[in-house]
């Protein structure tokens, strides 16, 4: 036997005899990113800053589910800045944020998919995409090669090389099989040679197993690429069984037996995964911590006697608060982490706590605390003297029912600053109380608050009930309303700015609250106003903007909107004052809530307190990413569902809110949303619940997703109707795609179905049961404004023509069935200068332009007239699908024209017939009316309202180009 073979044979015998041991170190207790001890992950990030950039950008990099760390850019290429970063551990996905030290961000959380231990991406300033190849046709600074000569060393732990070979190919060309023809002290050796190549920068390879008649009997991983060559096109690489990475240095390859994973995945089940195949019958494992092994079985029933993933079944249920260790001779011992067990129905059944006293409960005589942390072996309340204090006083908490921990402090604790600490396994985690209702600056600690002291005068009386179909919702960002230099508003960017009255702008036009009130809408929907992560509240002298869809503390207001973020009570008092003032002006308030994800899973209080529970995971243990920001919360779990319901109920009662808009509602489950509706009904049944019912790729039963397809299972919950949105102006995902108002033919049927509030959509699209379940809109904070979209799709049209298209779209929205939704500034044809994703763009892009409001006075008056019309005619606000089918009928109309009649609507106050016509043609169209006049003209393409603009006597009408007409009959 050759010496090399003898070494591998000895290693194999040791492997079979020993297997499973060593210590696997997670980056944090909650890391489920399949980290391999001793492995490395390399990421290369290219960043092209803006041409006028003056900021010092760097990177915040984090393995999925792990802690983050700042890294600088270390070089430059023709694309821009470059950072090459090597992380300890092997990961399938790595996240990063382009940011400054003050946490200004260019984009949000982005992720790099890792293949063969490496990942490379390109990012451009202001572009939300993450590119896996250089955009704009620019190629990385890699030379091309005419001839390739690669020496491949391949090591198998099992020493079974028979049938294994390489499938390899030059970039963008056909592949071929290459055998292993030699061996050395590492393993088998193959030589890949390619000649007379053109524009080749890399070669691909797959390690596969072939048998006669079946060349692809098995393979290890997928496509891998060799990219690191010498000038002459030669390279030498090392690859090992069970490791996806390609190594250019033999010494970096870890060929020692290693535990990849050791976690409690059931109450009496531990999952072990190793980089060596395990002899299941002769495992030789021992478990310490007060548990005994009953049996060891393959994880996969199809696995044979040797496998690298097994289930260890214990004799009795494991205590999740204890530390267990696995041990084996020559391998040391490994701490067993808490794994999938926290995501089992049995866990919920055992630990669900139904009480209403989570968080702190304040009185002048005593403040009690209750924390839910069922996997903690110890818990402590930590008291701090200041918001920036680092060494707090730790007080032990007592273990109580259903996985909760309690303590109480005598006396008046108002103003106490606190956090919780929990011991998970052998690690201590500190976190803000998820139920904290008041927080310090930047939300880094919770505080005890006397909420009664934060109430404005005359605050508790709720507004008169309003039927959802009567609502006209106006979506607004707190900062946008006041930041324009000509807004006339003193408290710029603040809650109090929204509450200012009698403010005036250019030409004396009403601004701010007075403008919204004058417009005639019924509800103001505020983009997130809870405490979010992306704005540094200690540096408010520096302009910072964010929409706020990165939650940090769900039950406390955002400090940057207050006049003093250092004083916990101020943000609460001022938000309540804003709500109260809006109410006194007959405007209801809807809060945009973002329970579907957090700013970061690993850094969130949820994950620190109960690792692995609150978030949703894929089968491979990686975080689910239906949200696109790297973490989906698991609303189907009882304590996450309870948190959402508790939180919404708290905001509704404490802040006297009138509704909630659920961001990415399709991530949640039907039962949770129905529980939300049920809880709010007990407070005020007229509160509106609406959300983005998109069908998102998250791992729960499709029948359980709270999306449009399942709308019929969620009565009283409304969904944004993207079908009429895109039908009107074109797809939001294609800048130049057109819709009905801007020249796309054959879209009339889409508009007709939208006018009917989608009640007859196919079940594959939506299952709306009544019009209150449908939000009818054409633009929102996301994507291009309607005006910017029209400029993209119709660049050669005149401004006047685009104004007509815009007014036509708004006319359709306000004369359709369902719940009307307007984006702030839509009434004066808001522009963001073509910025389709302005979530962190400066005020110059996002602020409401009050000069434009003054210049577009005629257009604003037209919108006000449409609103008066809708509010005056119940026929536009029918309550049931049955009423719509009974009273709305479409009339014959020319191409690109929609006409319909609202006949005999059952209403004691107004039962007159209405005819509505939308003409999307660039010339006038003649429509035959269902009867001869007289018909009152309420909308004529120039003006709109609830009073007659003239009388039509005949049975035909000429509808001007790009306009809507509304007629009222006898």
Automatic annotation (TrEMBL):
What CDD domains does the database record attribute to this sequence?
Answer: AmyAc_Pullulanase_LD-like, CBM41_pullulanase, E_set_Pullulanase
EC number(s) reported in the record: 3.2.1.41
Q: Which organism is it from?
A: Fictibacillus terranigra
Q: Is Metal-binding among this UniProt entry's keywords?
A: no
Q: Name one Pfam family in it.
A: pulA_all-beta
The cross-references to InterPro entries, in alphabetical order and at most eight, read:
Carb-bd-like_fold, CBM41_pullulanase, GH, GH13_cat_dom, Glyco_hydro_13_N, Glyco_hydro_b, Ig-like_fold, Ig_E-set
> Could you say which protein family the record assigns here?
Belongs to the glycosyl hydrolase 13 family.
Provide the alphabetized UniProt keywords. Calcium, Glycosidase, Hydrolase, Signal
Tell me which Gene3D superfamilies the record gives: 2.60.40.1110, 2.60.40.2320, Glycosidases, Golgi alpha-mannosidase II, Immunoglobulins
Q: Listed GO molecular functions? A: pullulanase activity
Statement: the UniProt record of this protein carries the keyword Lipid biosynthesis: no
- The protein's name: pullulanase
What reactions does this protein catalyze?
Answer: Hydrolysis of (1->6)-alpha-D-glucosidic linkages in pullulan, amylopectin and glycogen, and in the alpha- and beta-limit dextrins of amylopectin and glycogen
Stored SMART domains: Aamy
Give the taxonomic lineage as stored in the record: Bacteria, Bacillati, Bacillota, Bacilli, Bacillales
Extract the PANTHER family matched here.
GLYCOGEN DEBRANCHING ENZYME
**What residues does the Glycosyl hydrolase family 13 catalytic domain cover?**
504-870
Q: What SUPFAM superfamilies would the database entry show? A: (Trans)glycosidases (SSF51445), E set domains (SSF81296), Starch-binding domain-like (SSF49452)
Which of the seven top EC classes does this enzyme belong to?
A: hydrolase
């Amino acid at each position: 036997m050759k010496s090399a073979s003898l070494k591998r044979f000895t290693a194999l015998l040791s492997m079979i005899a020993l297997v499973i041991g060593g210590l696997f170190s997670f980056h944090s207790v909650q890391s489920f990113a399949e980290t391999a001890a001793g492995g490395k992950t390399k990421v290369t990030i290219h960043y092209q800053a803006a041409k006028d950039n003056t900021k010092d950008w760097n990177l915040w990099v984090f393995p999925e589910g792990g802690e983050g760390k700042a890294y600088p850019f270390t070089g430059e290429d023709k694309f821009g800045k470059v950072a090459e970063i090597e992380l300890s551990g092997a990961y399938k996905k790595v996240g990063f944020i382009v940011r400054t030290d003050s946490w200004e961000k260019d984009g949000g959380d982005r992720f790099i998919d890792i293949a063969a231990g490496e990942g490379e991406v390109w990012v451009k300033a202001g572009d939300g995409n993450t590119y896996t190849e250089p955009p704009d046709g620019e190629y990385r600074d890699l030379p091309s090669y005419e001839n390739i000569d690669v020496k491949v060393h391949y090591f198998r732990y099992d020493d079974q090389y028979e049938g294994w070979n390489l499938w390899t190919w030059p970039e963008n060309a056909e592949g071929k099989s290459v055998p292993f023809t030699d061996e050395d002290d590492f393993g088998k050796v193959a030589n890949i040679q390619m000649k007379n190549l053109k524009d080749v920068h890399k070669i691909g390879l797959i390690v596969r197993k072939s048998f006669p008649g079946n060349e692809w009997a098995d393979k290890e991983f997928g496509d891998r690429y060799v990219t690191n060559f010498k000038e002459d096109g030669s390279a030498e690489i090392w690859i090992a069984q069970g490791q996806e990475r390609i190594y250019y240095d033999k010494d970096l390859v870890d060929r020692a037996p290693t535990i990849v994973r050791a976690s409690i995945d059931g109450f009496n089940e531990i999952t072990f995964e190793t980089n060596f195949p395990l002899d299941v019958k002769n495992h030789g494992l021992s478990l310490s911590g007060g548990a005994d092994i009953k049996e060891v079985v393959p994880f996969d029933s199809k696995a044979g006697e040797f496998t690298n993933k097994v289930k260890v079944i214990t004799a009795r249920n494991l205590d999740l608060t204890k530390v267990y260790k696995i041990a084996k001779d020559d391998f040391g011992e490994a701490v067993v982490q808490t794994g999938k067990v926290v995501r089992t129905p049995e866990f919920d059944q055992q630990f669900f706590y139904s009480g209403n006293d989570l968080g702190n409960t304040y009185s002048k005589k005593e403040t009690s605390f209750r924390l839910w942390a069922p996997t903690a072996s110890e818990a402590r309340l930590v008291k701090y003297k200041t918001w920036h204090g680092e060494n707090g006083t730790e007080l032990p908490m007592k273990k109580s029912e259903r996985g909760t921990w309690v303590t109480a402090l005598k006396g008046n604790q108002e103003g106490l600053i606190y956090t919780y600490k929990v011991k998970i396994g052998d690690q201590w985690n500190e976190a803000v109380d998820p139920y904290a209702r008041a927080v310090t600056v930047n939300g880094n600690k919770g505080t005890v608050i006397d909420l009664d002291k934060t109430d404005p005068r005359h605050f508790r009386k709720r507004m008169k009930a309003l039927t959802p179909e009567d609502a006209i919702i106006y979506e607004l960002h707190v900062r946008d309303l006041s930041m324009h230099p000509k807004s006339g508003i003193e408290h710029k960017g603040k809650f109090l700015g929204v509450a200012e009255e009698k403010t005036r702008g250019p030409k004396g036009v009403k601004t701010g609250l007075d403008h919204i009130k004058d417009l005639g809408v019924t509800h103001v929907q505020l983009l997130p106003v809870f405490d979010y992560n992306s704005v540094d509240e200690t540096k408010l002298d520096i302009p910072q903007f964010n929409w706020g869809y990165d939650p940090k503390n769900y039950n406390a207001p955002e400090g940057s909107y207050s006049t003093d973020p250092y004083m916990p009570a101020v943000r609460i008092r001022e938000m309540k004052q804003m709500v109260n003032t809006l109410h006194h002006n007959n405007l209801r308030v809807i809060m945009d809530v973002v329970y579907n994800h957090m700013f970061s899973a690993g850094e969130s209080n949820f994950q620190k307190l109960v690792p692995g529970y609150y978030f949703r995971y894929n089968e491979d243990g990686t975080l689910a990413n239906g949200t696109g920001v790297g973490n989906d919360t698991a609303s189907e779990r009882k304590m996450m569902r309870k948190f959402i319901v508790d939180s919404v109920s708290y905001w509704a009662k404490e802040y006297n809110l009138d509704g909630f808009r659920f961001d990415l509602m399709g991530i949640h489950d039907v039962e949770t949303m129905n529980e939300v509706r049920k809880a709010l009904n007990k407070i005020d049944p007229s509160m509106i619940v609406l959300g983005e019912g998109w069908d998102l790729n998250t791992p729960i039963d499709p029948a359980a997703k709270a999306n449009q397809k399942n709308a019929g299972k969620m009565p009283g919950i409304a969904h944004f109707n993207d079908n009429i949105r895109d039908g009107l102006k074109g797809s939001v995902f294609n800048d130049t795609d057109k819709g009905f108002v801007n020249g796309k033919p054959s879209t009339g049927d889409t508009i007709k179905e939208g006018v009917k509030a989608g009640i007859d959509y196919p079940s594959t699209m939506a299952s709306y049961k009544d019009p209150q379940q449908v939000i009818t809109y054409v633009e929102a904070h996301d994507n291009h404004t309607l005006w910017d979209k029209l400029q993209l799709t119709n660049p050669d049209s005149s401004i006047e023509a685009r104004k007509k298209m815009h007014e036509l779209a708004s006319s359709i929205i306000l004369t359709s069935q369902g719940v009307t939704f307007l984006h702030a500034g839509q009434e004066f044809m808001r522009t963001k200068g073509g910025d389709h994703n302005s979530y962190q763009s400066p005020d110059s892009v996002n602020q409401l332009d009050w000069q434009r409001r003054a210049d577009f006075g005629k257009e604003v008056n037209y919108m006000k007239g449409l609103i008066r019309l809708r509010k005056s005619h119940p026929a536009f606000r029918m309550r049931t699908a049955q009423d719509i089918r009974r009273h709305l009928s479409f009339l014959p109309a020319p191409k690109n024209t929609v006409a319909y009649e609202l006949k005999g609507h059952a209403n004691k106050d107004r039962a007159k017939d209405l005819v509505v016509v939308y003409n999307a043609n660039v010339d006038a169209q003649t429509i035959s009316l269902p009867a001869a006049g007289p018909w009152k003209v309420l909308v004529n393409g120039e003006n709109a309202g609830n009073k007659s603009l003239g009388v039509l006597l005949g049975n035909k009408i000429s509808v001007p180009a790009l306009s809507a007409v509304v007629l009222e009959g006898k």
